[in-house]
Structures are given as C-alpha cells and as structure tokens.
C-alpha cells in the first residue's frame, strides 16, 4: 500500500486501498452472542467483501441516543440478502468501559472493542475518509 499522508482525497485513485479493515479496526471486533446478552470477539475478516458502515456514537450524546434506536430498528428489519452485504461497526466516543457496555447492549451490530479505542485512534478519527467507488 502506498502512503497517502497529506494528499488531497480527490487525488487518490478510486479503488485504491489505503488501509485494510484489519489495519483500521484490528484483528477482532465484538459481536453479540445469540444465546445471551454477552459479547464475543470475532475476526474482523467477517467484514471482508461487505459494505461497512462505521457508526461513531456515544452514550453521553443526546442526538446519538435518539438516533441509535431508529437505526437499530431499521437494521433489524433488513432482509437477509442485504444483511449478507452490509455490516455496521460501532466506534464509541464514550469515556469509560461501563458506558460503552451499556450503550452497545442497545445495538444489534458489531463494535470496535472499547480496549482498542486508544488515544491515537480517538485523535486521528477525524481524518478518516473511506471511498469505495466513483460517484
């Protein structure tokens, strides 16, 4: 992969892989267990070949708390063909593990583990641009 630091996004050729999902999210993400309310770590490779929406949100954010149930309802209503092609990954802006855990319980999708939310990740997320095709 080429280094694109400081390059204007429009100058990066369409379809260029700047960072893989494993580089961005790590080797494992969280998924709710189907048998109980606990979460389990699963391979980020489960996202390969899917359209991935990164959902930046926080327990302390009133607009987020209002939007999350609506998004969850829509996500649960998706038919299996769409769910096979789409995945949402929650990226928390919460300040502690307990807030993350409580908020993630409301979500039917995957999440970046709170332990992976390093200060470097938090500081650099504002520079994240993902393009998948020309519009």
Description:
Keywords: NAD, Oxidoreductase, Repeat. Its EC number is 1.8.1.8. It is an enzyme of class 1 (oxidoreductase). It is a single chain. By secondary structure, this protein is α/β, with parallel strands linked by helices. The protein is 29% helix and 19% strand. It is globular, with a radius of gyration of 16 Å. The C terminus is likely disordered.
- Amino- and carboxy-terminal Cα gap: 23 Å
Which structural category fits the helices and strands?
alpha/beta
Net shape: globular
Count of the separate structural domains: 1
| The CATH superfamily title | Glutaredoxin
Which key phrases capture this entry?
alpha/beta, disordered C terminus, two-stranded antiparallel ribbon, three-stranded parallel β-sheet
Structure at a glance:
The protein contains 5 helices and 5 strands. The chain is globular, with a radius of gyration of 16 Å.
